[in-house]
Amino acid sequence: MRFSRKYLGIPYYIFLGLFVIAPLVVLFYYAFTNGSGQFTLMNFAGFFTNPNTLGTLLYSFAIAAVTTVVCVLLAYPLAYILATGRLRRKSGIIMIFVMPMWINFSLRITALKEVLTFLEGNLAMYPFLNAVVGMTYDFLPFMILPIYTTISRLDRSLLEAAADLGANEREAFLKVTLPLSMPGVMSGVSMVFLPAMTNYVVLDMLYNSTYIMGSLIGSYFSAYNWNGGSMIALILLGIICLFTYLSDSDEGQNNTRGGALL
Question: Which CA distances in Å does 141 have to 65, 149, 197, 212?
């Protein structure tokens, strides 16, 4: 019997079936059934009629949006300088920002908590600020790396062509570098915004008593309300998929525009 390369995909099919498809089937089952196992849409309707759920969703969006904006504002100038500047040992500088990712998450947040306690005093007085600072500290490397990679791979001849056509450095950046670096920005946004909506561990460790979507889902399952928790998780999954689709669409358009420039 001749060996076929398609057999190499069997372990991946098994993995997808056990750890992706099977959990999704269970999630759908509990989301659209009640405690007696009967089909119902009450869980879906309850998501949009429960003010606590909608308030938590808006609060999660606010934290994720502010965190993403702060990460972009901090990461883009740094990535641009590292990618275009004539700095020695760039890899060493990048390593400084990557090294915290090698340390245990709990230790990093605990250390940040001590710093914020020294600066602010009572952390419970600034829950939103603490959440944004903690999320930014945790996800900033995920914004720096894709932007740096994208800018460092840009064709420098495009900037030379812009200069030959009379563009100054500011115009060349706004009309060439910035549009062509947007795929890296969108990649970083997707890696920061989506986890920031559900990463409730940061909030819990920084004395934050407010909920985001991750903690709300956990509270449902802790109360053995698997039906309501599954529906919230399913709707959140749909929102994440929609956001990812829109991000990929924007990235494809940016790549098309970049291809036209080339």
Answer: 17, 12, 17, 22
